Amino acid sequence: MNDNSLDAMLMTDAPDVAPLVSWLLSAERQLPVVLVSVARSRASALVDLGRLLGELDGAAQVRVVEAEAATALRSQFAPARHLYGGAVRVIPAGVSHEAPPRLHVPFGAADSQRVTTAVIEDVRLAQGATVRPISPAFGRLALSLR
Q1: From CA 119, how far away is CA 30, in angstroms rounded?
Q2: How many CB atoms lie within 10 A of CB 45?
Q3: Which of 13, 30, 77, 102 is the most interior residue, by most CB within 10 Å?
Q4: Above 60 in pLDDT, residue 61?
Q5: Taking phi first (over 0 means left), then psi (-120 to 50 degrees means alpha), and beta for anything else, what does residue 86 get?
Q6: b/e map of 48-84 (b: 16 or more CB within 10 Å)?
Q7: Cα-flanking dihedrals φ and ψ of residue 86, to 5°?
Q8: Domains of the chain
Q9: Strands 8-11 and 61-65
Q10: 84-93, pLDDT tens digit by residue?
Q11: Of 61, 72, 3, 1, nearest to 35 (Cα)?
């Protein structure tokens, strides 16, 4: 995966998930990743993907996760455990994933712009985050804001 690419990569099947999880946990990843689930009732994202891609150009990666892949992702990556039905999460680069980032749940298409704005704000917050070790013995990381 290319950390400089902002193309909305579509994750459709369970086999797509293992490389995504490896990338999410990679120390090489420099940008936040926006995980967007697809609502089964619409078969499309409830957030404004065009706006996310336009406003976050070069600041984040966007991964759209369809239902089958979302089920596999939830079982392999704890911060994605509630990622379904159109929900969205921003996964910051280089931080501990013990406490899941804020979950954004659009309540239908009419809520799309509010949630899209909140996701963009989360990416901007993640850009200001730095990583600091908590315990060298456990190699854990914590998020602190500059």
Answers
A1: 18
A2: 22
A3: 77
A4: yes
A5: left
A6: bbeebeebbeeebbbbbbbeebbebbbeebebbeebb
A7: 100, 0
A8: 8-145 (3.40.30.10)
A9: parallel
A10: 888 999 998 8
A11: 61
**Quick check: helix, strand or coil at residue 134?**
coil
Please work out, in degrees rounded to the nearest 5, the angle formed at the alpha carbon of residue 35 by the alpha carbons of 29 and 36. 155
> Could you tell me the two tokens for 45?
């994202």
The token duo for 135 is 């315990």
The amino acid present at 47, given as its one-letter code, is V
C-alpha distances out from residue 14 to 60, 65, 80, 122, Å: 23, 10, 14, 27
Return the biggest CA–CA distance within the chain: 48
Q: At what angle do helices 17-25 and 67-76 cross, to 10 degrees?
A: 40
Q: What is the spatial distance between Cα 20 and Cα 77, in angstroms, rounded to a whole number? A: 10
